[in-house]
Specification:
Blueprint: H1 38-46, E1 52-64, E2 67-73, H2 77-90, E3 101-105, H3 109-113, H4 116-124, E4 128-131, E5 134-138, E6 146-147, E7 149-152, E8 154-159, E9 168-174
Antiparallel strand pairs: 1-2, 1-7, 2-3, 4-5, 5-6, 8-9
Length: 178
Amino acid sequence: MNVRPVPPTTSTTPSSSYPRFDPHITLLSLPADSPTPISVLRDAISSIQLSLDIKFKSIDIGTQFFRSVYIAVQLTPALTEIHTHVHKKVGVEPRTPKYPHLSLCYITDEDAQQGGREAFYRAIEDKIRKEGDGVSLDCGELTEEWMSGFVASEIWIAECNGPIEDWNILDKVPLQYV
């Protein structure tokens, strides 16, 4: 998915805004000091057998770094079930605000105060179109490639501590296509 415009370079000081990352839906979030081993996480998702249909609901401007501008995803019974299942298996309360969503960019509060989140949205606004009860997003670079969703074929287990560029994918658990 490539919808990210070139970050603005109007500031003379370096910014932590616009780091590169793989768009993703956060299913479960644990504290950095969690003693939960990766085997428990893998076991929690190993019983999920079906791929997940992801449909885009809207593109929204958020109020927080990790939800600066994001795709709100239509909450389906399957997404609700997997979210509940994984949290129960791991034994933690859900801490996944705006679930489910896919962030398109991360913009610091300082840059947001200067209109950074709104500017990012305006830069992609002509790549968004309403379709039924959702939206499509043009993800093409040289030609139009409209996407209104996708099929999630795997769940990643990631360690997301420290700078975003240092996040580490620990495992990828494949899902079966239906």
